[in-house]
Amino acid sequence: MIRIRRVVEPELASLAGLTALLQDVVHDGASVGFLAPLPDATAADYWRQVLGRLEGGLFLWVAEDDDRIVGAVQLEPCGKDNGRHRAEVQKLFVRVSHRGRGISSRLMRAVEAHARANGHTLLVLDTLSHSDAAAVYRHLGWQFAGSIPGYAATPDGALHATSYFYKQLA
Q: Which of 7, 51, 76, 141 could anchor a disulfide with 60, C-beta 3.0 to 4.6 Å?
């Protein structure tokens, strides 16, 4: 059974699972900020930075199948005075072996519930245009705001358009 939970403090015990998750999605072609092949040290350093920011306002949820991390998503509230009503969803990904089971939807529901409970009325995100993720966001009621061609490289280095989405929670 898949369990969704918020990581509330740095968990170095989760570092190996998070590292493996990131490598899995990057090596499958996900455009999440890294090129393939993704070395262990680079992936682990990324997660150490994320875990270090949990006490500074970044939020992280993981999906676990037994004790194996199979998905994750982050939420970063805007720190500007005029943007305290909004937050950015970042790095939603699910292991290739666990896709098609509704894990992305469950992670996003957790993010949206947390955002609502904390007074965020607008969420934003960007994703590779024409990706499976873009279809997931549309399915979950997110609105397409526009795209920028040649914005991000996929793990093989090819440039692709990114699409921006938003969701009003109020």
A: 7
DSSP state of 85: T
Q: d(Cα 72, Cα 60) in Å, to the nearest integer? A: 7
Q: Which fold has domain 2-121?
A: Aminopeptidase (3.40.630)
Q: Three-state DSSP class for 119?
A: coil
Upper half-sphere CA count for residue 9 (Cβ side, 13 Å): 0
**For the whole model, what pTM was predicted?**
0.96
Query: Which position has the token pair 């991390």?
Result: 69
For 161, the enclosing helix (H) or strand (E) is strand 159-168
With H, G, I as helix, E, B as strand and everything else as coil, classify residue 150: strand
Alpha-carbon gap, residue 117 to 130, rounded angstroms: 31
